Write a sequence for this structure.
């Protein structure tokens, strides 16, 4: 067996694990609130602005609470916090909803609830079909589930949307070279990866068996 291939599969699964614990949806990737507490004194804000600020604060508190419960394996309480967080934004700033569903999907994967995780990712993409964190996590999820044709569609769409993402070309190379056995497409992905990283795609070396 090609040990380099095994190493890449392990790296893919490790990366998916990192995504599960929130690395995908960092704060700087999230839409900003329409109002900022630094924009004006509290007395100068309109009622809608004050409510938006309260909702933002509550959303952050619910995320922290959910993560704490998940860390301590109190999964029922964590699930409720994630659901409450989505419900809050559903009546507030709906631009944030896709990423909140991605967070909920990550929690479901952490809880080994694959069907629920997939439903969450589908919901995120229904709300925003260009939500790149959802596309990446879903593509990796599909690869891990050996649903290779579906993974190709998702990851290729992400590569078209964000061609500068190195990991997408690496995942597509793995998909085409080892699973779908399409050397032409695998070679193309290899070259795209090398162009971005300015490094040879050493994982393609098959001398070690």
């Amino acid at each position: 067996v090609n040990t380099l291939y095994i190493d890449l599969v392990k790296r893919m699964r490790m990366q998916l694990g990192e995504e599960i614990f929130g690395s995908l949806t960092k704060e700087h990737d999230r839409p900003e609130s329409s109002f900022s507490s630094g924009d004006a004194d509290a007395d100068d804000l309109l009622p809608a602005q004050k409510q938006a600020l309260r909702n933002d604060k509550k959303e952050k508190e619910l995320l922290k609470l959910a993560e704490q419960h998940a860390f301590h394996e109190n999964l029922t309480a964590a699930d409720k916090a994630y659901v409450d967080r989505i419900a809050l934004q559903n009546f507030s700033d709906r631009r944030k909803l896709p990423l909140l569903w991605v967070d909920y999907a990550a929690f479901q994967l952490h809880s080994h609830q694959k069907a629920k995780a997939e439903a969450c990712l589908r919901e995120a993409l229904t709300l925003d079909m260009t939500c790149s964190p959802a596309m990446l996590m879903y593509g990796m999820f599909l690869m891990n589930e050996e649903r290779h044709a579906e993974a190709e569609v998702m990851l290729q769409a992400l590569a078209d949307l964000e061609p500068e993402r190195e990991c997408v070309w690496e995942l597509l190379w793995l998909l085409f070279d080892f699973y779908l056995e399409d050397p032409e497409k695998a070679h193309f992905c290899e070259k795209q990866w090398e162009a971005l990283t300015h490094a040879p795609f050493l994982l393609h070396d098959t001398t070690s068996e």
